[in-house]
Write a structure and sequence with these properties.
- The protein is mainly α.
- The protein has one domain.
- Helices cover about 65% and strands about 0% of the residues.
- The protein contains five helices and no strands.
- Helix 1 runs antiparallel to helix 2 and helix 1 packs antiparallel against helix 4.
Length: about 170
């Protein structure tokens, strides 16, 4: 994961250096490639780490929580980056007479600051991941011995489907 965050940092710095009249292949494409590799090296280990040790009965809930936190975190990140970009675009316009907030120079300045802040955040994440995450060997699930009955693992959060016309009172009693 630290490698992925470091690659994401590099990509964000590349995006922060975009010129006003940049070209796709020369200016954007390298950042897209590095960013794609970096995010792959972040999201896959994060998902593996978050689901390691989760019982099969709880895997759906755990996966849903991962996806929910990624969506909420992404929304907060976009809101923060947009706020930073808008604030610094407005500051640039205020300090340069005759420039519109919609001019390429003002918008580029605002987004450059936002990308540098995002790059710093990714760099801090890479450093924290390198320092705090300890690799651990995978542990295999316990397989029942020959003759040992196979019992489904059910958590308190897993819905259980019962057959045989049990009433609600009987289900609550169990």
């Amino acid at each position: 994961m630290p490698v992925g965050l470091a690659l994401s940092t590099v990509a964000l710095v590349l995006f922060a250096q975009l010129p006003v009249h940049g070209h796709y292949f020369r200016n954007l494409f390298p950042g897209f490639i590095v960013s794609g590799l970096g995010l792959a090296f972040v999201f896959v280990p994060m998902s593996i780490g978050a689901l390691t040790g989760v019982r099969r009965a709880d895997a759906g809930i755990a996966s849903g929580l991962i996806n929910t936190t990624q969506q909420i975190g992404g929304a907060i990140g976009v809101a923060a980056a947009t706020t930073i970009a808008t604030t610094f675009t407005a500051r640039y316009v205020d300090s340069h007479a005759g420039i519109s907030a919609f001019s390429g120079v003002a918008l580029t300045h605002g987004f450059q600051i936002a990308f540098y802040v995002l790059a710093a955040t990714a760099a801090v994440g890479a450093a924290l991941a390198a320092l705090l995450i300890e690799p651990q060997p995978a542990q295999a699930e316990h397989e029942p011995e020959v003759g040992e009955p196979r019992v489904a693992v059910v958590s308190q959060h897993t819905p259980v489907c019962r057959t045989g016309g049990a009433s609600a009172a009987q289900l609550e009693a169990n």
